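Protein Record: Sequence and Backbone Structure Tokens
======================================================
Scope: a single protein chain, as residues and as a discrete description of its fold.
Tokens: labelled as protein backbone structure tokens, with as many entries as the chain has residues.
Position: the record begins directly beneath this header, with no further notes in between.
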Amino acid sequence: MASTETPVCDFGLPAPDFALPGVDGKTWTRDQCKGEHGLLVMFICNHCPYVKAVRDRIVRDTRELAKLGIGCVAIMSNDTADYPEDSFDNMKRIAEAFDFPFPYLLDETQEIAQAYGAVCTPDFFGYDADLGLQYRGRLDASRKEAAAPDVRRDLFEAMKQVAETGSGPADQIPSIGCSIKWRER
């Protein structure tokens, strides 16, 4: 399990479009996921300890962001042949168990992860109302274990700022997590 850190935010970079199957049986596009004030695209998976440590916080923050007009979506891009815990059936099970308030989508070809430049799970991409990148940072100070409950909510605060002003914070701390599990080509 390689630990990887996300690159610095490339402000204004447009959000690539997608049409991916969700655990709810629907096909979702970028524009269907977008909210009035922006879009949060999260690359997560089921098996990663970094994601497991913060799933409840992701649910909390996305529920609150939805009230601010930020649409949220999670995409799973790992190679499910080598990582069966990340299978579509297990994605359904996790989404139901944690009551995900956002679409949870499978990127089976891994083309969407490549288009976004996703490198790890979790990897967060926060976009403004015009779908320009404004945040590429961490959820909070959690690592493989959840940080203290009262830590600064970096992702939530950044996306709240995006909803209110259209711009993300200049200073962003990278997310860290397990590398995306790419298929051999």
